[in-house]
Amino acid sequence: MKGFFVTGTDTGCGKTEVSLGLILALRQAGFRVQGMKPVASGCFPCIPVTDAAPDNHDRVVQATKPAPAPANGLSPVDSLSDFFSLDAPGDTPVDRSPLRNADAERLLAESSRQVPYDWVNPYAFLPPIAPHIAAREAGVRIDPDLIRARAQALAGFGDLLIVEGVGGWRVPLGPDLAVSDLPRLLGLPVILVVGLRLGCLNHALLTAESILASGCHLAGWVANQIEPEMPCREENLATLSSLLSAPLLGDIPWLGAPGPAAASSIDLETLIRACR
After folding, report:
1. For the ranges 19-23, 70-74, 151-155, 175-179, which has the lowest average pLDDT?
2. Is 37 a catalytic residue?
3. Catalytic choice (2, 15, 37, 65)
4. Phi, psi of 130 (to 5 degrees)
5. Whole-model pTM?
6. Any idea which architecture 3-40+99-123+142-275 has in CATH?
């Protein structure tokens, strides 16, 4: 499969905004792009329903009124064959996902083709805690083979797949699995999101070293200003540019609120070169 795995220097560094910016920029360049967030915590309960897509998407999955949380706090994972066929005309698609994650929903909404929510976010946990702890409390093992199967299914609907991690690069997903294992599992190069704030130099350099030490390819990095004011912003940016071996793919200013503006800050020419 082709695409990128998006990781970050920390939780809250802007991985979702950058992932959405990448999807939108690449779609505007003519690519068919699917988004994915394999693991998410801090999800909300809902009753999923479906309706006809308002645009040229074949299907859209919408969440409506809240429903009681499942007893184990996990959105159930079914086999791919349990879901509806996206190519069957006149069928009634059913998405049995009692938990949703806001970031994953945004990735799905921005993707070129609408698919069942569980393809985008197969592991959704209710409490806003570290995912390996949430999985343990739910009595669930996060299965890398299932993540790979869902990613392959999504990749079949587009030219590129943008996969957003959870937390930072070394966040555990289980006793023998971490976020850093997923790019190798999926065969994807890594884009590092650097949240511009005090301490970002150390965080970015350590994360980049760990990415390279793991045998992954660091395709590039994106600077994302996550606070309204940052002293010596340009000096920090210049330092990172001189010390990180990968190209700068985008410099996103303080945006104030989520939105599509991140796409305009992506260096599309450099990004497309990284796709090849």
Report:
1. 70-74
2. yes
3. 37
4. -55, 135
5. 0.84
6. 3-Layer(aba) Sandwich (3.40)
